[in-house]
Structure to design on (323 residues):
């Protein structure tokens, strides 16, 4: 439905390309997956459906919060979301450098604010009580003048007092609820950071509108060796740049840049033929497998190894030219 009506919201991700992503990423029950996508939660929902509520998923999101408009359309039961975690992309660099903190998040509830709220409530109650005593004295004097007016003023005063008290209670409840949500958000963020620092994820799925190279190079640090990763992009050029950077960096094998081709057929008696209108493209996929990165290998030894791999005839010609 998204691809037919609003493909821009899912970065023009075609359904056969999504199926290829799930296959190449080895999505299965019990995995610990990292998903970074800006496809309105479509890729996240597909991963959750394939895992069937078993395992854990860490969703990386840009901005203030994750977008899960398409995920809610899957109709998952509540237990599916128990193992769904979220982590902001802005905190990835600090997590990798070891300087991660939750100070930039909304502050946790402090005792001072609660004390000030309660003291303000007490002073308001005192003011209300003083007002009520003054009004009672005025009503007593008014009894001598007119009994009906006295009754009306007493009713109005009691209604005003009850309205103020209810308003104060509602404001206190709202403050406590907001502080509780802040505490819960901070706790979940710390739990997700602990999961990422284990660096034993079973796979990585990237499908975003951002350039894939910085995203992939930073998120691969959290993936265990011998695990698959898949990167989707609507265009080929960003993935070519990512392919080159990965080859220079090392730590990955079986790199493949592919494009799926889809063509619909009309199947009818004596009238079976390909349809005249077909999709022009469903995006490109860059897939590979992580391995342990040998950081001790120097560039000089790498160049020497490349020279040794040259054919003997080519080495002879180069030596002749130098002579």
């Amino acid at each position: 439905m998204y691809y037919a009506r609003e493909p821009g919201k899912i970065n023009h991700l075609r359904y056969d390309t999504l199926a290829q992503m799930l296959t190449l990423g080895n999505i299965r029950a019990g995995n610990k997956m990292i998903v970074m996508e800006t496809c309105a939660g479509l890729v996240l929902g597909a991963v959750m459906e394939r895992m069937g509520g078993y395992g854990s998923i860490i969703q990386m999101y840009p901005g203030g919060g994750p977008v899960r408009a398409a995920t809610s359309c899957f109709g998952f039961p509540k237990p599916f979301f128990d193992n769904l975690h979220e982590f902001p992309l802005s905190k990835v660099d600090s997590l990798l450098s070891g300087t991660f903190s939750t100070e930039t998040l909304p502050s946790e509830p402090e005792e001072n604010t609660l004390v000030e709220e309660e003291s303000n409530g007490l002073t308001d109650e005192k003011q209300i009580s003083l007002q009520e005593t003054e009004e009672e004295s005025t009503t007593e004097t008014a009894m001598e003048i007119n009994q009906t007016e006295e009754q009306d003023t007493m009713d109005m005063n009691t209604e005003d007092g009850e309205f103020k008290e209810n308003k104060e209670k509602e404001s206190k409840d709202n403050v406590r609820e907001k502080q509780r949500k802040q505490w819960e958000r901070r706790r979940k963020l710390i739990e997700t950071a602990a999961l990422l620092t284990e660096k034993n994820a079973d796979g990585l799925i990237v499908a975003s509108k951002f350039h894939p190279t910085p995203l992939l190079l930073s998120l691969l640090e959290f993936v265990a060796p011998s695990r698959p990763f898949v990167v989707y992009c609507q265009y080929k050029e960003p993935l070519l740049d990512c392919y080159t950077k990965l080859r220079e960096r090392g730590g990955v094998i079986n790199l493949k840049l592919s494009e799926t081709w889809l063509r619909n057929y009309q199947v009818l008696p004596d009238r079976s033929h390909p349809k005249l209108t077909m999709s022009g493209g469903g995006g490109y996929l860059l897939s590979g497998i992580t391995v342990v990165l040998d950081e001790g290998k120097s560039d000089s030894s790498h160049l020497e190894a490349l020279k040794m791999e040259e054919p003997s005839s080519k080495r002879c010609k180069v030596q002749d030219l130098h002579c």
